[in-house]
Amino acid sequence: MSRFWSPIVQTLTPYVPGEQPKIANLIKLNTNENPYGPSPRVLEAIAAESSDALRLYPDPNSDRLKQTIAHYHGIEPNEIFVGNGSDEVLAHTFMALLKHDKPLLHPDISYSFYPVYCGLYGVENKLVPLDSAMRINPADYNQDCGAIIIANPNAPTGIALTAAEVETLVQAHPDKVVVIDEAYIDFGGETVIPLIKRYPNLLVIQTLSKSRSLAGLRIGFAAGHPDLIEGLERVKNSFNSYPLDRIAIAAGVAAYEDETYFQRTVQAVIDTRTNLVAGLTLLGFEVLPSATNFVFARHPRHDAAKLATDLRAKAILVRHFKQARIDQYLRISIGTDEQCEALVNALQALIAA
Ligand SMILES: *Cc1c(COP(=O)(O)O)cnc(C)c1O
């Protein structure tokens, strides 16, 4: 606390990201980064952009990137908004579209940045509990509200709704904005981006951090009706004219131009996930069905916080949340086959001990 802070700052509870420690030979399975690097085409584009041109400001509208993403998804550039990571896109969404007289609904267990943005922007929120199977039930959202946001697949559970289930939710609230955060959609979910043509209240947010291996570059986007996009542009242009730098724009475009690399690395993550789930299940873990690049698992006889601490002592990082309902779970990002094998071996030793 400082007497120099604006009053709102005294009230904030900031988001705490997974740690990025500087430990040698660390097996880092705690922040859902992709174990494979970005496409070589992306690295070439970054090298080409690293030139004298950096003295110039980037395109404030990131038009090339919007055109590329719009073309990839079969929609129009004016249906795309881009930002410095989907976290920034989410932040602008909370300010531009989710602050109303009635509360914003979101799951009780979900991306923990949502309540943080509510605090920052003064958005009243109401938590909707996941059901006993840790699933989002769209019918539970049939209540008076100002807007709705869910992650699909949800985090940190990893469980996905079908596109038809998401459509039911969007249909049931024609006069409210429904935001679907699809950060993990490429690892096993069905995107609802095509539905934006039919539902002017639907905003879909994606990131290049996970399935396109660009967490270090910070690129995210939203897809929706041009009126929703214009609301986001108004906030963005009142905040930062140039959220994406020249290198990010060039790299983002290149990431969509290498579909083969994208498909191959996403499939490798999915295959490793299948093996990891089998390995954890053999050790007695209960693993929720994952459509993401992480699994959420608990062991009926071993405390999750202790397992996380003991793994850390073996230079393996996983994520543990000290939160009601999920404090007996570990969230484990899918690494390479070798990393996941090392994790299973380490857990086997801990459980046997
Ligand atoms: C990782 C993640 C994001 C943020 O991604 P960035 O684009 O890296 O900011 C947003 N939503 C969910 C659910 C995530 O897990």
UniProtKB/TrEMBL annotation:
<keyword id="KW-0028">Amino-acid biosynthesis</keyword>
<protein>
    <recommendedName>
        <fullName>Histidinol-phosphate aminotransferase</fullName>
        <ecNumber>2.6.1.9</ecNumber>
    </recommendedName>
</protein>
<dbReference type="GO" id="GO:0008483">
    <property type="term" value="F:transaminase activity"/>
</dbReference>
<dbReference type="InterPro" id="IPR005861">
    <property type="entry name" value="HisP_aminotrans"/>
</dbReference>
<dbReference type="InterPro" id="IPR015424">
    <property type="entry name" value="PyrdxlP-dep_Trfase"/>
</dbReference>
<keyword id="KW-0808">Transferase</keyword>
<keyword id="KW-0368">Histidine biosynthesis</keyword>
<comment type="similarity">
    <text>Belongs to the class-II pyridoxal-phosphate-dependent aminotransferase family. Histidinol-phosphate aminotransferase subfamily.</text>
</comment>
<dbReference type="InterPro" id="IPR001917">
    <property type="entry name" value="Aminotrans_II_pyridoxalP_BS"/>
</dbReference>
<comment type="pathway">
    <text>Amino-acid biosynthesis; L-histidine biosynthesis; L-histidine from 5-phospho-alpha-D-ribose 1-diphosphate: step 7/9.</text>
</comment>
<feature type="domain" description="Aminotransferase class I/classII large">
    <location>
        <begin position="25"/>
        <end position="347"/>
    </location>
</feature>
<dbReference type="InterPro" id="IPR015421">
    <property type="entry name" value="PyrdxlP-dep_Trfase_major"/>
</dbReference>
<keyword id="KW-0663">Pyridoxal phosphate</keyword>
<comment type="subunit">
    <text>Homodimer.</text>
</comment>
<feature type="modified residue" description="N6-(pyridoxal phosphate)lysine">
    <location>
        <position position="210"/>
    </location>
</feature>
<keyword id="KW-0032">Aminotransferase</keyword>
<dbReference type="InterPro" id="IPR004839">
    <property type="entry name" value="Aminotransferase_I/II_large"/>
</dbReference>
<dbReference type="InterPro" id="IPR050106">
    <property type="entry name" value="HistidinolP_aminotransfase"/>
</dbReference>
<dbReference type="InterPro" id="IPR015422">
    <property type="entry name" value="PyrdxlP-dep_Trfase_small"/>
</dbReference>
<dbReference type="Pfam" id="PF00155">
    <property type="entry name" value="Aminotran_1_2"/>
</dbReference>
